[in-house]
Structures are given as structure tokens and as C-alpha cells.
Design goal:
mainly beta, Metal Binding Protein, Guanine Nucleotide Exchange Factor, Chain A, four-stranded antiparallel β-sheet, Pc20g03260 protein, lyase, globular, zinc, three-stranded antiparallel β-sheet
């Protein structure tokens, strides 16, 4: 299945082939600050941080509008984490299902656990 998406200003667009995917919410402090094989048009910028695993997390964003687009995790080299809010055609609703929530230990107190989602205190 092909998924398409873009940043807020439309300067970055992408298409990704994804037969299956895991829908997840991450509540780690990096994702809280960052919120908002991949092919795209336009030049992204990236910001690298060291995750709790000791491995590098590369966060990619649009240099014009700042929209967070995707993350590449050194701990998961064969996968790309796409920011769901950038998906086109209603796909950002993730088919109404979240499979897992990561870093629930850092989840803001005003957010409730997603019913039916596996609750993980950290990643992995």
C-alpha cells in the first residue's frame, strides 16, 4: 500500500510503500519536543539525538515550516518512523487503532491510556 504525505508548507512531499505497519504513540521527551524506505521531494534537515538505548535517533523536518516528518532509529535500521500527522487522505487517523504506547512513564498526566493499546514504560 502506498502512503503519501507532506509538511505543512508543501515544500516536502513523500511516498512510502508500506504493506504493514505498527501504529504507536511515543511519549518520550524527545518526541514531545519534536511533535508535530522513504522517498520524498525537497531537502529535509535533521537533528540527531542519542536515545536511552545509546543509539542515534535522527529526526527529519522541513527546513522551511519546521514540520516533523519522520525519524530513523539506529536501533531499528530497517524501519522508518513516519509522523502520522503528515499523512494525506485521512491516513493520520491510523485506521482508528493504536497498537502500542511507548514511554508511558513520561506520558503527560492529562492524557489517558489508549484503550486496547499495549502500554510500554520505555521503548523495546
Amino acid at each position: 500500500m502506498a502512503l503519501t504525505g507532506s509538511c505543512m508548507c508543501g515544500g516536502i512531499t513523500y511516498t512510502v510503500e508500506a504493506d504493514t505497519y505498527l501504529s504507536a504513540l511515543c511519549h518520550c521527551t524527545d518526541c514531545q519536543k519534536f511533535l508535530t524506505p522513504l522517498f520524498h521531494t525537497g531537502a529535509t534537515k535533521n537533528y540527531d539525538v542519542v536515545g536511552n538505548s545509546g543509539k542515534i535517533n535522527k529526526h527529519f523536518f522541513c527546513p522551511t515550516c519546521g514540520s516533523g516528518l519522520y525519524t530513523e532509529l539506529e536501533v531499528m535500521p530497517d524501519n522508518t518512523v513516519i509522523k502520522a500527522g503528515t499523512l494525506d487522505g485521512g491516513e493520520a487517523n491510523l485506521k482508528g487503532k493504536i497498537d502500542v504506547e511507548f514511554y508511558v512513564k513520561d506520558r503527560p498526566t492529562y492524557l489517558a491510556a489508549v484503550e486496547g493499546a499495549k502500554q510500554e514504560p520505555m521503548f523495546g
